[in-house]
């Protein structure tokens, strides 16, 4: 069996020509493997190559055909490398030719990661339709907001038709109700035409019921095949190698066949031998970039609660972190219980490359993306966001506390001026504080109708007050970040932070070349005085969350002199730029 090649996918069903299909499946314990096409009783036998893979080249399988594998004359199984499951995760697979799509984004250039302003969305709940086509219709809205990159949450098939229990079984396939792989290609093409990069969210840590091991295609036919509790599972080196190949080929497929700009990997440290896996993905991605002249980013998601105390020794640093672009998960809205804690940890986050203080692995020192060729060796590109992101390990929110409009503006500003790549969650720009926990119909409601209500973002809120004001405020923030080089150049050596714990205030100073920016933040519920540092500068105001323009209580001065003192309004942020 040939090893992974960057030019084409070598597992599953592929179409090297219009007349022929290559079929490759991993089934090391099988004595016989045949492929059934469209339920035909005359199944096509596959040949074993003595490495656990079974193959056949045939002209009897065409794009659009349904197929399944029959192992040892028993039950039929779906293809673990299927690209489409139109009848659900328990049905047959559908052949799909990724080469037939006509891409119109020949002028597209993936921007530097530093310049990303990310917008994370869930296809099912972003629009009432819950489809890729409906997302395409919202791209103009996202451009108006100032977004230049979107994160698409996992699109792999899920057992429940309402997207309430996805377990990431078919990592190559695209959910049929979203529009399948063809519409996903159309969405990504439309994003690039609009100047928007696409980040695909991948849950490699949910690799089937066997966890991070890889058995054979029977693993993917049922969730009942996991080993008994307490019973050890033997995992051969061949299985580990097959598992690595399955994931490496998957990453390459999204880059090569779907033109995805970046991948965000969930909890990769939970996989078996993650350093070797990620290093191979990086190496193969570099090979692909050499042949296609397209740059792709690899992002690691690392969940951290910004409002939970994380001091040296509290947590062990991920061995994957060194050299990676990490995704940080913040919970600043629903866990806004202790403003002084939030202020303290934002200070730590702004000041340092890592929230964790432990040494990082050197194995991947040069494996994953950095900001630029000139970035200091210690630099990492954290992705910071302010919306609550629910996960099993997340601390329970302070549900008894309401979130004021001023708090919303303060948190949005603190994220947008941070020395990390900012992320907005869908709907937060007009005040939706739990976008991924939208109301779902009850079982009783579902029984009353064949088409139960589809939980989706309340887009009607966008035309209401103060939601429209908040949206315009977010537009000002994204514009500010794009226009000021000190904000979108992510050099950790061009950042200074002054925190006043008693007053719960913070001064963030960022600079790049001749661009100097100071961001003054008050996290307390009372007005607080803050003094600018003596930098021999005159300062001109760029943004003020407390300005009446944004329904705030009072505006700060339009200009300040060196070492001036001003009074910050409660829960507010003011941004000044040094005059030339």
UniProtKB/TrEMBL annotation:
Annotated TM spans: none
Annotated Glycosyl hydrolase family 13 catalytic domain residues: 94-481
InterPro entries for the chain: GH, GH13_cat_dom, Glyco_hydro_13_N, Ig-like_fold, Ig_E-set
Family that this chain belongs to: Belongs to the glycosyl hydrolase 13 family.
Name of the featured protein: Maltooligosyltrehalose trehalohydrolase
Organism encoding this protein: Spirosoma utsteinense
Classification of source organism: Bacteria, Pseudomonadati, Bacteroidota, Cytophagia, Cytophagales
